[in-house]
């Protein structure tokens, strides 16, 4: 039962965390509307589309992860009750693959930030500057939220191993 509680608490923490994607998406969407309504300069007008796109992307990520993790809460109990060892194994495999994905994310996103920063330095067109700055802001949001999710996933994986070890000892 400890395994089910652990998995459920992790999924609920992920549901809470993904709400930050949605909150930041709303900020980007509001910024887009603000630039549309109040933007007077070429640079300000150039931010309309990039902030709108960033807002839509973050909203898509947030809602997708929110509903995926929300459904996991109910699926966990069913899977646990059907076959506990298989549930444990699937969670271990999922955490391992997710941690591998995070290692790629934490290498690729900084490279993208560097590329966007270089564009700011070398390209002086307002649209490209707006795209670069908005991209950097969006990628930082992704790093912030994924950084905390990565930490939770590492802890979750360690706790899964510990719960399994305790179960083996108690047999």
Q: Distance N terminus to C terminus?
A: 14 Å
Mean pLDDT: 93
Number of helices: 5
Rg calc: 20 Å
Low-confidence stretches: none
Q: Major sheet, described briefly?
A: none
Strand fraction equals under 5%
The total strand number stands at: 0
Q: Strand-and-helix sequence, N→C?
A: HHHHH
Overall geometric form: elongated
Oligomer: single chain
Helix content: over 70%
Keywords:
5 helices; mainly alpha; 94% helix; 171 residues
Textual characterization of the structure:
The protein is mostly helical and 171 residues long. The protein has helices spanning 2-38, 42-46, 48-82, 84-122, 126-169. Helix 1 packs antiparallel against helix 3, helix 3 packs antiparallel against helix 4 and helix 4 (84-122) packs antiparallel against helix 5 (126-169). The protein is elongated, with a radius of gyration of 20 Å. The protein starts with a helix and ends with a helix.
